[in-house]
Amino acid sequence: MELYATGHNPWNQLQFDGSKAEEEPEDICNFTKVLSDDNAQVTSIRAFPSYTLVFNQSTITQHPDLSSLLSSLPPNETFTLPGTLTQLIPFETGFAALLNSPSSAPPPPPSFGSLSATEVYTWGDDRFLPTLAREPTTSSPASCPGLVTYLQDLPTGPVTQIAAGGYLLAALTAGNDLYCWGHAGRSPVAQYLSLSDVPEPVIIGDDIEIVDMAVGMSHMIVLTTDGEVYVIGSNTNGQLGLSDTEIAKEWTRVDVPSCEGRIRGVAAGPKASFFWT
After folding, report:
1. pTM of structure
2. Which of 1, 121, 145, 246 is least enclosed, having the fewest CB within 10 Å?
3. Inter-residue contact 45 to 274 (CB < 8 Å)
4. Number of C-alpha atoms within 13 angstroms, CB side, residue 178?
5. Which Gene3D superfamilies does the annotation name (predicted)?
């Protein structure tokens, strides 16, 4: 296994070799190998500034702030979702959840085998409705999980993965199609992709299919079925791995360094990006 990283590094957060840290380390502006272990594999990367997720079957308890949680005060909200929770992710003004649908939900098309039908729910601040991809109602207000109907019955199968960062959200289908939505006034990537407030398919190039994706505060990274890495968005801290570019307003393929094995996945922090073999 090899892990490569690029981006924001003021506290040596991209340094894993145990060497003595510099007093004022510089950001990393190209994908650089930061970890190697022949006897291990990457299972997940969780790079974020500060938030807490607690998984408890499909019941979500939401606290107003961290001090309330640490003080053992009762939560201000408790939600029971109609299915098995597989992902729970935050964005700037809310949350999104991916669920395996209850057995009563229609199955995915036969071409996708035994994959379960899935549902995406969003909730958060109603002042930023484009991030929710749904219209709040009295029975389903913005502050409570609500179903994103636009991500049901998609032509390339059920949603298998969701990601979010800043004011941008993304979903990946079983057939390797990418859907994105967000607040164009707040998210530069949403603006560059001309996104609306409902999930829309994102085309990176002819015959390019996506197997993994991740979203930072103002950038996005994807991995294609051919093992290539594409990025878009801000590069102010080197998070795109493009040393000669300040910003990429279109999808740009990264010339990744020679590495052992095939690239297996990508991840993103607020101002950093990762891939591993």
Report:
1. 0.85
2. 246
3. yes
4. 27
5. Regulator of chromosome condensation 1/beta-lactamase-inhibitor protein II
